Amino acid sequence: MGSMSSTSRFELPSFPTSKVDLVKRYRFYSDLAGFLRAVARLDDTFDSFITGSPFAEGRLIRARRDVSVKVYDARAGRFVRLQEITHALDEDERCADLEVALSYSYLNERYDRVPLEGDVFLVRASIEGDVLTLKICLEQGVGRTEGGMLAHMIVDALRRYL
């Protein structure tokens, strides 16, 4: 499967299958179009979480996590925002590669927003029958958000918006 040439419109030919940090499988009763519609709702969202301070070891801070989601489009040859996909999806499409960029910031003691190094994940979502498989790998960053948390964010969006 990993050595076969990619035929799906949304599969990144150079997806790093050897670098996958996390594989999760879920029951899923929709198609790729439904998956992409639900995940598109994550784009331009944010939440807050507790993380370690980059400046004071052992100190915890409340940080903001901004989410940006793009899908690989072979027709464009690059990752595009999900809203840019104008063509109807083929019913036999079963796989899509996403780029999820997470940017972080926090408020310092003077309430100035201070940016932190962000993370970029590649996510391969494939649907076989009624099983959704997410393969997640940290492509860039320090991993302030773990792959399991990203999987939880995606599944939460599916539960909310499907």
What do these coordinates show?
The chain has helices at residues 32-40, 147-161, and strands at residues 22-27, 45-52, 60-73, 78-81, 95-107, 113-128, 131-140. The relative contact order is 0.25. Helix 1 crosses helix 2. By secondary structure, it is mainly β. Mean pLDDT is 92; it is low at 1-6. The radius of gyration is 17 Å and the shape is elongated.
Order of helices and strands: EHEEEEEEH
Q: What is the count of helical runs?
A: 2
Low-confidence regions: 1-6
Q: Overall 3D geometry?
A: elongated
Number of domains: 1
Q: Which structural class matches the secondary elements?
A: mainly beta
What is the percent of helical residues?
10-25%
Mind summarizing the main beta sheet? 7 strands, antiparallel
Report Rg.
Answer: 17 Å
Mean pLDDT: 92
The total beta strand count reads: 7
Rounded to the nearest angstrom, the distance between the terminal CA atoms is 29 Å
Strand content: 35-45%
Question: What's the short version?
Answer:
The chain is mainly beta.
Mind sketching the topology for me?
Blueprint: E1 22-27, H1 32-40, E2 45-52, E3 60-73, E4 78-81, E5 95-107, E6 113-128, E7 131-140, H2 147-161
Antiparallel strand pairs: 1-7, 2-3, 3-4, 3-5, 5-6, 6-7
